Each structure stands twice: as C-alpha cells, then as structure tokens.
Serine carboxypeptidase-like 18
Amino acid sequence: MDKASTLFLDTPVGSGFSYARDPNGYNVGDISSSLQVVTFLKKWFNDHPRYLSNHFYVGGSSYAGKVIPIIAQYISEGIEERKQPIINLKGYMVGNPITDLKVDSSYRVPYAHGVGIISDQLYEAAVANCNGDYVNPTNEMCSNVLNAIDNLLSEVDDGNILDDKCAGRLTPKPTDGVSGSRTLLGEHSRLSELPAQPSINCYSYCFYLSDIWMNDKTTRDALKIRMGTIGVWVRCNEDVFPYAKDVPSSIEYHFNLTTRGYRALVFSGDHDLTVPFLSTQELIRSLNFTIVDDWRAWHLGGQAAGFTIMYDNNLTFATLKGGGHVAIGYRPEQGFAMGQRWLDNKPL
C-alpha cells in the first residue's frame, strides 16, 4: 500500500476546483462525465507513460460509487479495442455506493426498522400498504405511513444514525426538493455560501474546516489553482451544473466488469441511513454469483472491524463496523487495513 500512487480527480466538471470555459461544458451526466474521466486518464497516461505498467484501480464513494463501474467499463472496452494508451486496469472499489436510487431509497425503511427508529406497527403498515415501494406512494394509506416514517427519520443523522444532528452535515435527503418525489438527491446538498460552524464534537466539523483550508490562498497556490477560475470553494456544490442522472442503475456495469475478470470491492458503513448496507447487499445478491467465502467477521487489532462475504468472479462485499456515509471517513484505520489487504489480494 505504501507503494501505491493516488490520483484525486474533481468530477464532474464544476465540482471542487474544476471548471469549464464554456457554460455548456457544465451540462453533463453519468455517461458524459464518465467519458470525460476516461479522456483525462488517457491524457494523463500519455504524459506519464512510466506508470502504464502499474496495476490500476478506480474507486469512489456515495454518488461516485454509481459512476465508478461506468468509468471502469469504458476503460475495459478501450483495452479490448486496443486503444492507446492501454491502461492496466485490474479492478475497482466502491464505498457506500448509490447504485439504484429507487432501491437505495426504499431500503431506508427496513433499515430504520431494524435499528429501532420506527416501530413494528409502523413498519408492518408500510409493508401492508406500500407494496414494497417506499419511494412513490400510490395510495393515501401508504403516503400517510411514509410521512410518519419521514418524521421519525428526521430525528436522526442520515450520515450516521449514532451522530448528533449538526449544522454542515451536507448529506443526501430523501426528497429532491424540486419535483417532490421521494428520491435521493445524490451526493450533494445545495450550497451558495460557507456552511454554519458546527460544534467541535460534530463529525461535520471536519467539513467546516475543509472549507476554510480550501479557501486559503496558500492552499490554492500549492495546488496551482488558476486565479479567477473558482470563487468560493464549497465542499458540495450542485448549483453550478445541471447534472443528468441518466443511468438509473449501475448494477449491469458491476455484472459486466466482474464477469470479465476484474476484481471488485464493495463496502458499506453499517450505520449509514443514506445508502443502507441492506440495499447494497441486495443489489449484489441480484447478480446471482456463487458464495466462495461465507459471511464472517474480519478483524483488526484482535477486534471485529466489520463483516464480509466473497462471491465468485472476485467480488467482495464488506461492512465497516460503526461506519457511516462514507465509511472510510468514520473508520480510517479499518478502511486503510481493508484496502491494503484487498489490493494485496489477501483475505480481509
């Protein structure tokens, strides 16, 4: 792991310090932004050919977890077509990944029941009246039940149900705020200015600090950010581009990649209400792969760090105990150990 090189990329255009010279350049979506990443990688490897022989992995969390398999598939297709430069893709990893917005949202209800946020009676009413769809109610009884559930969910932090609710959380909400439909926003909440300062005991305090650090001139100079391109840097900025979620589900991309021989690590924080591990686990099971190493604990320092299961086609699913959205931010030591073992092709 200490011999790995890491590329951090601001994507889609408009996020972080990235920008477009033409306003039309911000009009991107799942497909177009993924193709832009592949274009960037080809140019980067052309400029740095000494890295072409290195094993290459792509990874991301939350909404990035949805587009990572798309990016990886485009890279794999380039390899098959012998398009230069040939990237030595070996696999990909996604954490707390949004995979299918409807499925991810619906699993908030059974997860909330399982951890004691909603009662047996309310959960049973949802099961009886919503026909398994906890996103788009089709009758008044279901709508009433889901409203009651939403009120209870609002009492806890989506990112980690054990955390206090704090200012500056910036995690997806169960409604999109535009159409009124019950869907996940994706990764971002709207933000036009720096967030309010949370208590130092809040997890979101690190987000508050990141805004200060990234807007410091010394930081910008060190990163060689071109002057005049970006005003105030904000951690989550959805206002600048009309992003199109034009891939409803990335599950077929997971299937295509893993059956082509690429390794995959999918992991979840087990206290994440935004994208519950139940949803990710169900989507993995829909691939119908055979289990080769059944559900068990994986350990760090003599303690269970989470639980894991491995399927054929080199697909590993793991949880990080106590992790939220996203898991490696809450459990960095465990996340590092998990990634190191997986990259070394060792059992978790």
Residues 172-192 have pLDDT under 50 and may be disordered.
